[in-house]
Amino acid sequence: MKNNNDRSISNLLKIISKVEANEVKATIVSFTLVLILMASYYTLRPVRDAMSSDWSDAEVSMLWTINFFFSFAVVAGYGFSVSRISLKNLVPSVYTFFSITFVLFYLISQNMTDAQLIDKAFYIWVSVFSLFPLSVFWSFMADLYTKEQSKRLFGIITTGASIGAIAGPSIPLLFSGIGTYNLMLIASGMLFLTLPIIFYLQKIKKDELGNENHTGQMQLMQTVGGNPFAGFKLLLQNRFLLGIALFLFIYTGIGTFIYLELKNLMSDYSRTERTEIWALIDLATNTLTIVGGLFITSRLSTKLGLGWTLAVIPIIVMGGLLSVAMVPLLSVVVLLQIFRRGGNYAITRPAREMLFTYVDQETRFKAKPIIDVVVYRGGDVFWGWGFTGLTQILGLGMAAIAVVGAAIAGCWAMVGLLLGRSAEANQSKET
Question: Which long-range contacts (C-beta less than 8 Å, at least 24 apart) are formed by 19-24?
Answer without folding.
Answer: 19/152, 19/153, 19/156, 22/208, 22/209, 22/210, 23/149, 23/153, 23/208, 23/209
